[in-house]
Amino acid sequence: MELLYESTRGGERNVTASQAVLKGLADDGGLYMPERIPALGVSLEELAGMNYQETAYEVMKQFLTDYTEDELKYCISKAYDEKFDTEEIAPLAKVGGVYFLELFHGKTIAFKDMALSILPYLMTVAAKKQKVKNEIVILTATSGDTGKAAMAGFADVPGTRILVFYPRDGVSRIQELQMLIQEGENTFVVGLEGNFDDAQTGVKELFHDKDFARELESMGYQLSSANSINIGRLIPQIVYYVYACARLYQNGEIGKDEKVNVVVPTGNFGNILAAYFAKQMGIPFGQLICASNDNKVLYDFFRTGIYDKNREFILTTSPSMDILVSSNLERLLYLSCGRDAKMTKALMDQLSAGGCYEITPSMREFMKDFCSGYANMKENAAQIRHIFEDTGYLVDPHTGVAAAVYEDYRKERGDNTKTIIASTASPYKFPKTVVEAVAGSVEDTDEMALIGRLEEISGVPVPEAVRELSEKKIRHHLVCRPEEMKETVKSTFSNKRK
Ligand SMILES: *Cc1c(COP(=O)(O)O)cnc(C)c1O
């Protein structure tokens, strides 16, 4: 049965999956939602016999109904191949009575790889379907990690090119190196003489610039967005929750229909929303526990029904969760008011005007599958150390937040339901914080030097993504000022036209 998409703000209906993937954001500023959440067509028994790629097909075919079987299988096989360092793609580690779902075995050793390795293929197939002749141009501003994950995903995918702006003084040396060594003839990265806000504002302006769009068009290009509100990122994230649950069932860790709780270290609310979708599709999930760091907007929201971003922004040791506006929450709001687009738009308007809104009691009731907690930096470090001392397993600072929140949850509620913790990055991505947490202090502040130390401590071999930093040569040298961003894009692409 065909599944169509609609904007959460009411301006668009009857949009096909491939149109939604290609556009990313609706013209009215809303997010695309499937008009219903489909049920999984297969049982847990059947899923237990499937590998990651087969599971991905079963989940994604329910949502991407205008993609043919061949097209979907092509996207899946291109995305989930040897670039992951384990055949399982998303393995579960049973540690101290919980299951860590390791989402960091892709190219950039963090969970964004799970979706960004397939999005480029979903987009190019969509472009073909929509008879788009132009090459797809992805423009992104990054504060560090997403830019690299997007470049790695799009590298050498025919029919695409990607250009990433990053603030030269606003990313760590490791993050910068990761981007500067990125291979692929279609990848470009520009160091911006400004901060992340300058980069983001500049990119947003380019997306709204009609003249710019026409100029690109005449050069044979069209802009598209790879950010986390694209349904082409959300849907692939449902897969690993279905896969994890099937593994638990297969290994006899859970019985048929036994509930499983899920804890997710949350920033933009994309990852935990995917868990919610998995539950709606029929996966026996119980509580979805939303874990925040010191920027605990979501914790306050689930506790009070009031979303308020008017507060100090705190830079923490779990930077990918340092977010005050969680864009994917709009999708849950939309569902919680019975798909009332007027209501959703009104709340979003309040958010952009005053930074604050309050939901109704019935919307709060609708969200009862979710609960929330937060851990500050000190609690996070203590938890990383505690897990390591008890079990020898080392987690990154994002997963540390989730584990600390889970520990509190279990103590408070006495809920001993089996639990999956989404493990969103390798500890090697944050060597300083992790070494500091387990060793008490660090003698060396050079992150590269700490990598060897981390290997000694953990006994886990240094992943390729880290080793290549000192082995590969720097390929990108472009820099520009904020007012030069448009010219930089144009000249980069006019020179490189094949
Ligand atoms: C992006 C990210 C998160 C937050 O995920 P959301 O889907 O934005 O909630 C958590 N941990 C890591 C390591 C990330 O990169």
From TrEMBL:
Classification lineage: Bacteria, Bacillati, Bacillota, Clostridia, Lachnospirales
CDD domains linked to this entry: Thr-synth_2
Stated family: Belongs to the threonine synthase family.
Main function: Catalyzes the gamma-elimination of phosphate from L-phosphohomoserine and the beta-addition of water to produce L-threonine.
Enzyme Commission number, as recorded: 4.2.3.1
Catalytic activity: O-phospho-L-homoserine + H2O = L-threonine + phosphate
PANTHER family: THREONINE SYNTHASE-LIKE 1 (PTHR43515)
InterPro entries, per database record: Ser/Thr_deHydtase_PyrdxlP-BS (IPR000634), Thr_synth_N (IPR029144), Thr_synth_N_sf (IPR037158), Thr_synthase-like (IPR004450), TrpB-like_PALP (IPR001926), TrpB-like_PALP_sf (IPR036052)
Sequence ranges assigned to domain Tryptophan synthase beta chain-like PALP in this UniProt record: 94-412
Protein name in UniProt: Threonine synthase
GO cellular component, one term: cytoplasm
Modified residues (N6-(pyridoxal phosphate)lysine): K112
